[in-house]
Amino acid sequence: MEFKIDGKSYNKARACTIKTAHSTIQTPVFMPVGTQATVKALDANDLLDMGAKIILGNTYHLYLRPGSKLIKKFGGLHGFSKFPNSFLTDSGGFQAFSLSDNSKPDENGITFKSHIDGSKHYFTPQSVLDTQYELGSDIMMILDDLVALPNTRERIKKSIERTTKWAEEAIKYHKEQQKKGIGVNQNIFAIIQGGTDKEFRKLSATQLCALEDYDGYAIGGLSVGEPNEEMYETVEWTTDFMPQNKPRYLMGVGTPEDLIENIERGVDMFDCVMPTRNARNGTLFTSFGRVNIKKATFKEDPLPIDSECDCYTCRNFSRAYLNHLFRAGEITYYRLSSIHNIHYYLNLMRQAREAILADNWLEFKKEFYQKRENTGK
C-alpha cells in the first residue's frame, strides 16, 4: 500500500491518497457496504458508474456462505463479483458477536453459532486472515474483542488486552504468510477499542499503533447507541494517538453529519449500511437533508430527489415516480433509490476533499449545515 497526505485544513481534516493493488483511493472516502460481495440492489457497473474505488465485504457472512474457498476458485472477490477496484473485508468478529445468541470469546478467539443453520464455528486471529487471504481483499481487518456498551471497566479492559494480544499474533502470522508468498498484495489494519473511556482509548491506541508493521488503524466500537457528541469527543481524542502517515478508518459510521464531523477530527475512511438500508425503507439523503419519499406530498412532484444531484436517478426520474415505485413495492425502487443515496455519499466525500485541498473547510461545513435547514426543498 502507498499512502500520502495531499492536503490539510481546519483542525485535523486531511485529504490523502491510498494506492492498493486494485485502485487509487482518494480520501476522505466512504466505502459502500457489500456484505455478501454485493452492495444490495446494485452491481459492479452501478458502482463503477458512481466512481466507487473501494467497497466493503463481510468475512463472517462470506465465510459461512458461499465459503471463501469457492470465492477463491473464481479469482477472489474481484473475480467473483466483477468489481475490479479495491475491497476491504472486516474480520467477522462483530457479526459473530452480534448475530449469535451464543457467541463466546476466550483468550484465543471467538466461538459462535451460525445464524444460518446453527452450526458451531471458531474464529482466531489466524483463521480470519486465512479466510481473507482466500477472499483476496485489498485491506484485511484483524479479529478484535468487542464488548456491548455500557459495560464494566473490567470487561472493557479485558477486551483491550485480548485485542492487543490478537493484534500481535495477527501481524506476526501475516508477515510469516507473506514470506511464503501468501497475501503479498494484501494490507492489514488493527482496530482500536476502549468504549468512550479516554483512558482506555489511549491505552488501546498506544499499544496497537506501536505495532508499526500494520498498514493502517481503525477506530471500532462506536456508533452503538452513545450520544453523537460522545462519539465525536472519543474520535477527537483517539486520533491524537494514531500515526499521521497511515490511514485512519472509523468503522460503521454513519450519517452525513457524522462523516463531516469526523473528517474534521482526522478520519480518512468510513463505511455504513445507512445509505442503502435507508433507501430501501424510503429515506433518501439530499443536499438539503433527508426526504421521506413515502409521503403523499410527493405523489405528483415532478422534481428530482435532489436538484443539486447528477446521479442516474436524479437525471432521469421524478419524486412522483419514486413515490409510485415505493408504494407499489416495485423492485426497481430499490436500485434507483440505492443509486441515489450511494452517489450522494460518494459525492459528499469528493466535495469534502476539494474543500480540504482548497483549505476552506469551515466555509464548506457552514454551507453543508445551512442547506440542511431547508429540508426537503
Automatic annotation (TrEMBL):
<feature type="binding site">
    <location>
        <position position="144"/>
    </location>
    <ligand>
        <name>substrate</name>
    </ligand>
</feature>
<feature type="active site" description="Proton acceptor">
    <location>
        <position position="90"/>
    </location>
</feature>
<feature type="region of interest" description="RNA binding; important for wobble base 34 recognition">
    <location>
        <begin position="276"/>
        <end position="280"/>
    </location>
</feature>
<keyword id="KW-0862">Zinc</keyword>
<dbReference type="GO" id="GO:0046872">
    <property type="term" value="F:metal ion binding"/>
</dbReference>
<dbReference type="GO" id="GO:0008616">
    <property type="term" value="P:tRNA queuosine(34) biosynthetic process"/>
</dbReference>
<comment type="function">
    <text>Catalyzes the base-exchange of a guanine (G) residue with the queuine precursor 7-aminomethyl-7-deazaguanine (PreQ1) at position 34 (anticodon wobble position) in tRNAs with GU(N) anticodons (tRNA-Asp, -Asn, -His and -Tyr). Catalysis occurs through a double-displacement mechanism. The nucleophile active site attacks the C1' of nucleotide 34 to detach the guanine base from the RNA, forming a covalent enzyme-RNA intermediate. The proton acceptor active site deprotonates the incoming PreQ1, allowing a nucleophilic attack on the C1' of the ribose to form the product.</text>
</comment>
<keyword id="KW-0328">Glycosyltransferase</keyword>
<feature type="region of interest" description="RNA binding">
    <location>
        <begin position="252"/>
        <end position="258"/>
    </location>
</feature>
<comment type="pathway">
    <text>tRNA modification; tRNA-queuosine biosynthesis.</text>
</comment>
<feature type="domain" description="tRNA-guanine(15) transglycosylase-like">
    <location>
        <begin position="12"/>
        <end position="373"/>
    </location>
</feature>
<feature type="binding site">
    <location>
        <begin position="90"/>
        <end position="94"/>
    </location>
    <ligand>
        <name>substrate</name>
    </ligand>
</feature>
<feature type="active site" description="Nucleophile">
    <location>
        <position position="271"/>
    </location>
</feature>
<feature type="binding site">
    <location>
        <position position="309"/>
    </location>
    <ligand>
        <name>Zn(2+)</name>
    </ligand>
</feature>
<feature type="binding site">
    <location>
        <position position="314"/>
    </location>
    <ligand>
        <name>Zn(2+)</name>
    </ligand>
</feature>
<feature type="binding site">
    <location>
        <position position="221"/>
    </location>
    <ligand>
        <name>substrate</name>
    </ligand>
</feature>
<feature type="binding site">
    <location>
        <position position="340"/>
    </location>
    <ligand>
        <name>Zn(2+)</name>
    </ligand>
</feature>
<keyword id="KW-0819">tRNA processing</keyword>
<dbReference type="Pfam" id="PF01702">
    <property type="entry name" value="TGT"/>
</dbReference>
<dbReference type="InterPro" id="IPR002616">
    <property type="entry name" value="tRNA_ribo_trans-like"/>
</dbReference>
<protein>
    <recommendedName>
        <fullName>Queuine tRNA-ribosyltransferase</fullName>
        <ecNumber>2.4.2.29</ecNumber>
    </recommendedName>
</protein>
<comment type="similarity">
    <text>Belongs to the queuine tRNA-ribosyltransferase family.</text>
</comment>
<dbReference type="GO" id="GO:0008479">
    <property type="term" value="F:tRNA-guanosine(34) queuine transglycosylase activity"/>
</dbReference>
<dbReference type="InterPro" id="IPR004803">
    <property type="entry name" value="TGT"/>
</dbReference>
<keyword id="KW-0808">Transferase</keyword>
<keyword id="KW-0671">Queuosine biosynthesis</keyword>
<feature type="binding site">
    <location>
        <position position="311"/>
    </location>
    <ligand>
        <name>Zn(2+)</name>
    </ligand>
</feature>
<keyword id="KW-0479">Metal-binding</keyword>
<dbReference type="GO" id="GO:0005829">
    <property type="term" value="C:cytosol"/>
</dbReference>
<feature type="binding site">
    <location>
        <position position="193"/>
    </location>
    <ligand>
        <name>substrate</name>
    </ligand>
</feature>
<comment type="subunit">
    <text>Homodimer. Within each dimer, one monomer is responsible for RNA recognition and catalysis, while the other monomer binds to the replacement base PreQ1.</text>
</comment>
<dbReference type="InterPro" id="IPR036511">
    <property type="entry name" value="TGT-like_sf"/>
</dbReference>
